[in-house]
Amino acid sequence: MLLSEVNYGAVAVTGVLSLVLGFLWMAVIWKKPYQRDMYGKVAGPDEPSKATKIQSFIIYILVSFITSIAFSVCLQLWKAGGQAFGYDGDSLAGAFWFTMLLTAGYTLPFTVGKKVWQFKSWLVVAVDTSYEVVRFTMLLLIFWFWS
Q1: What is the reported pTM?
Q2: I want to staple 30 with a disulfide (CB 3.0 to 4.6 A). Which of 34, 66, 79, 131 is the partner?
Q3: pLDDT by residue (tens digit) across 3-32?
Q4: Closest by alpha carbon to 33, among 123, 114, 110, 120?
Q5: Separation CA 17–CA 22 (nearest Å)
């Protein structure tokens, strides 16, 4: 079964590292422009409560674990399906392009949706999309070399 082949140690590490990367990406590297364009401010007194922040942290870490498990399964399927589709399942370069395809297919509808439906700036789309590209590349490298 696919889930029995998942490296849950790598899932735990990538789940936590996704959170760390997200913090660095959104709250350190792109803090001022992202907060301005995403929330309409740089910082202010109406920050979320500590309880709300903790709840958000817990939800995000759970979602990060689920994303890591799903990616691990997709990578296993990609490696195993190589012969059927005429590609080398042992090629890291091929796995990278497969990862970029997954990232585009699953990320762009949500990130571009922020522009189309929530009227956020293209900067928000670019920051969110670039975070996902870096995050999925991180997932690939950790699962590729650890599994």
Answers
A1: 0.87
A2: 34
A3: 888 999 999 999 999 999 999 999 899 999
A4: 123
A5: 8
